[in-house]
Amino acid sequence: MKNTTRHAAAVLGTLAAATTMIAVAPAQAVDLAPSHVTVRTTDDTPASGETFRLKGAAFSMDEKVPATIRVQAWRNGEWVHLNGATMHTNQMDTYNMRIILQQKGERTLRVVANPDGDDIKIARHQITVTVH
Known about the structure:
By secondary structure, the protein is an alpha+beta fold.
């Protein structure tokens, strides 16, 4: 009988911990500072296989913040990371990333800025380029 009691107590303890985590998570998400990321391209009509650059910065509360920057492309109904298109912002908290696209046509890209620390929201910004 003691084993049954211990097992029931363990299950109840696990459920209580899980419920607490669920109840706390949304409250913590509300406390994150807002952010946004800027994106400027050096060429919105790049040739296939040619280099162009995406430049910008991540901001929170109107101040530049250090962040990891990733570039994604919309392919087959989902966002896909571009190989090698990840970097951390420089000492001035800006990024300047070299991009090469092969697939011709209109391409939707998304820049994702994940600010350092865990108190600022992740920012995303989409742009469209036409590869010829």
